[in-house]
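Problem 12. The chain below contains 151 residues. Write out its predicted structure in C-alpha cell notation.
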Amino acid sequence: MATSDLYLKRHTEALVKDVGIAAACELTGKSKATLGRYYSDKDEHADRFMPIDAVAALETAASYPHVTAALSELRGITISLGSSEAPESKGVNSDVVALSQRFAALMAEYHESIQDGTISINEAKRLLAETTGLQKVLLNMKLHLESDIIA
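Solution.
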C-alpha cells in the first residue's frame, strides 16, 4: 500500500474514533464493519476509502478535520482553523508559551519512545498526537499574528 494511502487511512481512523464509532455509523449511515474497511490496512481493503460526503458529515461532528488536514498535508498545503475553533488565549505571547510546552512534551515523548531503539505503533500514535497538538498551537499562533496584521 502506498504511503499516502496508509496516511489517509490512519487519518480516517482518527476521524471515526474522534466522533465515536456508534455516532459515526449514525452520521454516515454506514455499518461499523464498513467504516472499519475504510481505514483497514489489510490488502483486501487497500482500494477502499471513505466517500467524501461521509468525511464531511464526520468532520462536522469531530473536534478536528483529520482527513481534510491529511489531504492538505499530502499536497504541501497549510490550513488554518477558523476563528470559531480557535481556543481562547491572550495572544501571541501565550501562544509562544503553549508552543514551548507542546514542543517539550513532544521531545519528552520522543525521548521515551526511542530509548529501546525502535518506536512501536503505540509510541508512534502518542508522537502523532503530540505533533498534531503542536500543529494546532502553531495554527492558533498564525491566526493571532494574522489578526494583528489586519487590526
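Discussion. The chain is about 70% helix and 0% strand. Students who got a different answer should revisit the alignment rule from Section 12.3.
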